[in-house]
Amino acid sequence: MKALRDEFGRFLQRYKFGMDEIVTKLSILREEFSEHEGHNPIEHISCRLKSTDGVLEKLDRKGIEPSFDAIRSSITDIAGVRVTCSFVSDVYRIVDMITAQQDVRVLSIKDYIAHPKPNGYRSLHVILEVPVFLSDGPVPVTVEVQFRTIAMDFWASLEHKTYYKYDKQVPQHLVDGLTEAAETAARLDETMERLHREVHGHPAPRITQVLEA
C-alpha cells in the first residue's frame, strides 16, 4: 500500500508541475502588463490540484478503470487553474496569448461565455497540454484553465455555495433567483465592456484561430 501511495503521489506531482508551468506563464503576462500597460487584464490567478480521494471518487462516479493510463486519458481537471479578468475582452485576449505559446497544445475549448449553460453559468474552459521536464525526460501534462470575469466568478461562487448548502436539492425559487442573477451579471459585464472600450478604444479579440485549429 505504501508503494502504491508513493507511486500515486509521483503521478499527481506531475500535474502539480504542469499547473505551476501554466501559473508561471500567466504570472509573466500579468507582470508584463503591470509594467508596460495602463490596464492589466488579469485580476487574479488561483489554482488547485485534486486530492487522491478526489481522483478516486471521480473514477468511481464515472466508472473509469483505476489505472494511470485511464486516469491520464479520461480525467482532464486533475490540475486546475482559474484566471479572473476585469472584462470579457480581457478573457479572450489572455486566452489568445497563452494558447499561442509554442510549447502549449490546445486539447479543447468550451466557450460558456458565448454559449452559457442553461442555469446561466458563464466561463471559458480551455484544456491545455504542457511539457514538464523531469529527471528522466519530458512528459506531457494536461491542465484545465478556466477564464472568467469578476462578475462571472462572483456568480459561480454564490451558485456553488448554494448547491453545497442544499446538497444539490435547491428550492426552485432559489434556482430562479440564481438564473436572474446570472442575467444581471451578464448585463453588468456588457455595460462595463462598453465603458471600457469607450475609454481605451480596444476592440474585443476573439479566439477564432484557436477554435478553427
From TrEMBL:
This is GTP pyrophosphokinase family protein. It comes from Leifsonia stereocauli. Signal peptide: none annotated. Gene3D superfamilies: Beta Polymerase, domain 2 (3.30.460.10), Nucleotidyltransferase (1.10.287.860). InterPro entries: GTP_Pyrophosphokinase, NT_sf, RelA_SpoT. Residues 47-170 form the RelA/SpoT domain. Pfam families: RelA_SpoT (PF04607). PANTHER family: GTP PYROPHOSPHOKINASE YJBM, GTP PYROPHOSPHOKINASE YWAC.
